[in-house]
User: What shape does this take?
Amino acid sequence: MTVLTPERAASATAAVSPGSPARGRRGRGRAGLVLAAPFAVLLTATVLVPIAYALYLSLFTDRLSGLGFSGPTQAFIAFGNYTDVLTDSAFHTSLGNVALFVLVHIPVMLGLALLLALLIDSAVVRLKRVWSLAVFLPYAVPTVITGLVWAYLYSPHSGLTALLPFDPLGKTGILPSIVNIATWQWVGYNMIIFYTALQAVPRDVLEAARADGAGGLRTAWSVKVPMIRPTMFVALVFTVIGSLQLFTEPLVLRGFTGSVTSTWSPSLYVYEAAFIANDYGRAAAASVLLALVSALLSALVMRLSARRSR
Assistant: This one.
């Protein structure tokens, strides 16, 4: 029989007491799991399960057996859908169109948003809230309505085409037209993000720059912009992801011009494969490939952001 000394008995009692550190850590761990459970369930149901199902669909295709009276059956073809998508010239054209869109849209939209944010943040602009609301309002308009409004403005009888050196609905003008629609809608959203970041810049840093003789332009370029660079990189990541998923603008303009085909962008390619051709395996494979491209570009931007931060 083991005999506990008073010191050992006190330590054993403290180890199992309700207020012991070990019990407190276990309690906090359970509370954290309970709080994280709704997010985990929502993430699994809305993100992980659809991704797993898309991966599953991308490995199969529908085939008719016999005379086709029994309906289509799923056949496992491994990476056959991925091969079909990667060798499809329509998919290559859609990637080229969205690449041109990204190269034009992102610098123009983010540059204009940054310029407007710097102007509203400066002391020379009055009625800052009014200007912020006016620039932000296009973001509140649904994308479909925005596309329809601009499609009407691009039509020959609107009078806008007479002021432009090109046909906004022609083959050479459709890309600038789509860039204009996307920029008009998203510049206010990113301007608010940049303006909020500028409001967090320490005032004493700006006062020190003015005391050193820096003017407004010098302060904006050498002080404000470097201090909100992390916010700019985050906006860049989300803009790249959103641009690769370009869908609504070309879909709306497709009803007004023949310059936009059913596979003009990768998202339209997926839509055409799934809901027009009923080829869900090819649509899933194209979706997975588009997701991989988005992930790679996002990782590249984040790596560049971390390097610039160091």
About this structure: The longest helix spans residues 21-57. The mean pLDDT is 86. Strands lie at 60-64, 72-76. The radius of gyration is 28 Å.
